[in-house]
Amino acid sequence: MSNKLLTQAKEVVLLAKKKGAQGVRASVHRRRESRVEWRNGKLDRLRESTRVGLGVTLLVDGRYSSNSTSDLRPEALEKFLSDAVAMTKVLAPDKHRKLADPARYGKRHAGDLKLYDTPGITAVNAVERKKAVRALESAARGAPGATKIISVSSRCSDNLSESSLVCSNGMEGARRSTAFVVSAVTYVKDKDHRKPVGWWYGVERHRDKLPALTFVGREATRRALLGVGAAPMASGRFPCIIENAVAARLLGWLLSPAFGRNIQQKRSFLADKIGQQITSPILSITDSPHLAEGLGTRTYDGEGMTTRKTPFLAAGVLKSHFLDTYYASKLGRTPTTGSPSNLVFSGGTKDLKSMVTAMSTGLLITGFSGGNSNPATGDFSIGIKGQWIEKGQPVRSVSEMNLAGNHLTFWKSLRELGNDPFPYSSTRIPSLRFDKVQFSGK
Predict the structure, then answer these.
(1) 280 and 366 assigned to the same domain
(2) Same domain, yes or no, for 151 and 252?
(3) What are phi and psi of 149, to 5 degrees?
């Protein structure tokens, strides 16, 4: 199918140029998803969907537009592109809008990155999906403490994605990938009619790499039970550990000011920080686009630029921003890439249990809620839930508290990274242990 999509993208580029566009970038995609959702012993939802679409960027007489359609019939495309070119001609010119430099298209990674699981996508079927969701619920209801369960939901899905990208100034590419997902969500009873919720999941490029269904279901129940009896503590400064499964939420706020849009619009506390220490020196983060089976793996980015392994942080020093061609031009800088692929972290030597022991007393954060972060100043506040630890052991459940601070000081209090990079995300972040930071509670 990818070759067919590539041919379609080439035809769109030629037709758009015939209609009067001087520069064209066309992306054709096809996505198929099969999903079963199960709730409290019954089928809740069954979904089979296939979506096709075209996205096309047009540059006409110094003007720019971005357009999309899901109707790929030849006669429909003819009218779509005629209208899109005509519309683009009446827009205001923008000298910074351009296709990527053709020099950035070359030397693309040519090896097999193992993104497509032929046996897995061939073998999976409706019967197997139904077995999986039932097994997930059975595992959740068979976990210790299951008498408190109110409700269990489970899901199993498999996804196939194919796409092509063609730029009129010399770039052509096609790719395909698979993704398999299993998940469970458990609600349990608590006092005052509260219903603590726990979840767990797995997502992999290859079906045989998924976690055991028994583990996923039991873990959802275990995490729900952690919330029973949770209450806020008094405000104060405490050491804390942020579990790997939730740490990416806070990291995303640190990354946001590194994007070209925020920098150009003067909403970035990282705008002038290249080459400066912004975190603890134990933290290094690398954008690794060629990680085998990675959920963010790619050989070219959304503009068609060849991807390269790039340091974001090196021993706490900011090394790069995320700049696409447009924002790089507006800032008078060289493009990098518009967004990260797989983020790989420097790692530690301890697992989460050993880190908790090393902390001795403090908060183990297992969930975030709400919150906000100001990309211009770095100030943030976010709701947390977790466990209060004394002498390396959990002694009470905690909720309804906020973690607050400023990213430029908060991340410098990082003291240890775990050896447990979270596998089910393109952000492969481990658990993180911090010195005393500010919490507000009752």
Answers:
(1) yes
(2) no
(3) -70, 135
Provide CB contacts within 8 A for 201, sequence distance 6+: 181, 182, 183, 184, 216, 424
Tokens of 333: 């800088």
> Do residue 164 and residue 141 come from a single domain?
yes
* 256/379 Cα distance (integer angstroms): 13
Same domain, residue pair 215 and 285: no
- Residues β-bridged to residue 170: none
- What tens digit of pLDDT does each residue of 164-181 get? 999 999 999 999 999 999
Give the domain range for residue 351: 236-440
Residue 442 has pLDDT above 80, yes or no: no
Give me the chain's average pLDDT, please: 96
My answer on whether 213 and 254 are in the same domain is no
For residues 273-283, give the mean pLDDT.
97
Instruction: Summarize pLDDT for 52-94 with one digit per residue, the tens.
Output: 999 999 999 999 999 999 999 999 999 999 999 999 999 999 9
Percent helix / strand / coil, the chain, rounded to 5:
30, 40, 35
Sheet holding 317-318, edge to edge: 317-318, 310-314, 285-287, 343-345, 427-428
- Number of structural domains in the chain: 3
User: Contact, 59 vs 99, CB < 8 A?
Assistant: yes
Amino acid at 36: V
Residue 405, pLDDT score: 96
Q: Is the backbone of residue 414 left (phi > 0), alpha (psi -120 to 50) or beta?
A: beta
Q: What is the 3-state secondary structure (H, E, C) of 28-88?
A: EEEEEEEEEEEECCEEEEEEEEEEEEEEEEEEECCEEEEEEECCCCHHHHHHHHHHHHHHH
Q: How confident is the model at residue 192 (pLDDT cuts 50, 70, 90)?
A: confident
Alpha carbons 58 and 85: distance in angstroms, whole number: 7
